[in-house]
Specification:
There is one protein chain. With about 160 residues, this protein is α+β, with helices and mostly antiparallel strands. It has two domains: about 40 residues, Winged helix-like DNA-binding domain superfamily/Winged helix DNA-binding domain (Arc Repressor Mutant, subunit A); about 80 residues, Alpha-Beta Plaits (2-Layer Sandwich), CATH 3.30.70. It is about 35% helix and about 20% strand. The protein has a four-stranded antiparallel beta sheet with strand order 2-3-1-4. Strand 2 and strand 3 form a beta hairpin. Helix 1 packs across helix 2 and helix 2 crosses helix 3. The protein is elongated, with a radius of gyration of 20 Å. The model has no long low-confidence stretch (mean pLDDT about 95).
Amino acid sequence: MNLDSYDKRILEALQEDGRLSNQDLADRIGLSPSPCLRRVRRLEEVGLISAYRALLNARALGLNLMAFIQISMDRHTPERFDNFERHVGACPEVLECHLITGQAADYLLKVIVVDMDGFQALLLNKITRIEGVTGVHSSFVMKSPVNKTSLPLLSSQQY
């Protein structure tokens, strides 16, 4: 799909504020409301806009400790990976799970908890109990100077 400048401006604006009314979005990008709404619906239909969400303030919710956990598995089989992914997917503390390469680890998890006690409970009561987990290496986030949710929309990209 080729995106024109209006499509890109729609995507950029909605990444900044997904609660924009169609009228406000149309005003912001310089289109009338009807064609703006048609474009948004088309972007949703083709899957470029996959969802709308609210971003919550973790600290205001008492979630003060973020960590990255590298996980090593005993076997590299689809069944073992499926089981692991199913278990970590059920943990609300796990924000992201990535199957990775180029490291000694097989997975990289991004987790958030209240404090070190919460981290210990997550690690010892949930993650290390998943069948096949043989190694765990944790790194704790001290600060996040760059923390984006918006994807870059490059002018030469084809969609």
